[in-house]
Amino acid sequence: MKDLFSIEGKIALVTGGSRGIGEMIAAGFLANGAKVYISSRKAEVCDATAERLANEYGGECISIPADLSNLEGIGALAKELSAKENSLDILVNNAGASWGEPIEEYSELGWDKVMDTNVKGIFFLTQQLLPLLRESGKSDNPSRVINIGSIDGIKTGTFDAFSYGPSKAAVHHLTRVLAARLIKDQIIVNAIAPGPFPTWMLSTGVGGGGDTDIDWSAVGQSNPSGRVGDAEDIAGLAIFLSSRAGAYTVGQTIACDGGAVASS
Questions:
Q1: What one-character DSSP code corresponds to residue 19?
Q2: Which has the closest alpha carbon to 134: 203, 81, 87, 194?
Q3: HSE, side-chain direction, 13 A CA sphere, residue 108
Q4: pLDDT tens profile 192-225
Q5: Beta bridge partners of 192
Q6: Which CATH superfamily is 11-256 part of?
Q7: What number is the average pLDDT over the span 43-60?
Q8: Of these residues, 57, 106, 164, 248, which one is catalytic?
Q9: What is the distance between the alpha carbons of residues 11 and 31, in angstroms, rounded to a whole number?
């Protein structure tokens, strides 16, 4: 029982790990003894975040930059990780995109960018990392895939991001489909649907221009809990799903939102 939530010594990949929710999860994993790879599209930012997290939390944090909206980038990430590791214990599919435009002007470019990154990217990266996940998965200690959805995939979103909510609803259902298939391979798949967190993406929606160092109190006051989420909230749930404590939780989408969905 005392090691129920331990992830010490596990190997994890967190996509979109250079900032926001991905960075929060990567930090939580490192602080609890995991070896963490992070990936994001911008190489310099990804490298800098990996170095900073390793210095702050100790352990190993390795950067593998990649564009996960296309098969070329997905294949490059899978190939590089496979050259470094023989197995993978935890895959966090967090890389995501959004696109906001009035409905009359909503573009095919915006639609495709969001769907390619948020849905196609998750499926094909998971597919290409199956050999590493299968190598890690044991009957008493399955490997884990955690897909990051959104409460906008459960309830109607606030912003004019017409492809974002549907893409996240697709992530939630894809999670169930993958879970049903991969549990036979000792791979557990679940999803987290975050509510408001102090991220670059939400900052652009609430007028912060992408700056996360803003006063989030107004956003927090609109949430039933009276605050936005923090790193401990999202990392704690990811650690639960990655540990022995979550080994019988399969195919679920868990809202981490301070009560936003329950109150909607």
A1: S
A2: 87
A3: 0
A4: 999 999 886 887 877 777 777 878 888 889 999 9
A5: 148, 254
A6: NAD(P)-binding Rossmann-like Domain (3.40.50.720)
A7: 97
A8: 164
A9: 13
**Helix then strand then coil, % of the chain, to nearest 5:** 45, 15, 40
Is there a catalytic annotation at residue 164?
A: yes
d(CA 26, CA 53): 8
- Amino acid, single-letter form, for residue 123: F
Distance, in Å, from the CA atom of 15 to the CA atom of 25, rounded to the nearest integer, reads: 10
| pTM listed for this prediction | 0.95
**Residues 141, 90, 80, 9, CA torsion sign:** negative
DSSP 8-state symbol, 141: B
> Structure tokens of 225?
């809990």
Rounded Cα distance, 199 and 40, in Å = 15
163-189, pLDDT tens digit by residue? Answer: 999 999 999 999 999 999 999 999 999
Q: What are phi and psi for residue 193, nearest 5 degrees? A: -110, 95
Q: Where are the beta strands (DSSP E) in 40-183?
A: 61-63, 90-93, 143-148
Residue ranges covered by each domain of the chain: 11-256
Instruction: Give the Cα separation of 8 and 243 in Å (integer).
Output: 9
CA 173 vs. chain centroid, Å, equals 15
Number of H helices, E strands in the chain: 10, 7
Strand order in the sheet with 11-15: 61-63, 35-39, 11-15, 90-93, 143-148, 187-194, 253-256
> 């990217």: which residue's tokens?
121
Report whether pLDDT(32) > 90: yes
d(CA 65, CA 49): 11
Which residue from 76, 56, 58, 57 is spatially nearest to 66, judged by alpha carbons?
A: 76
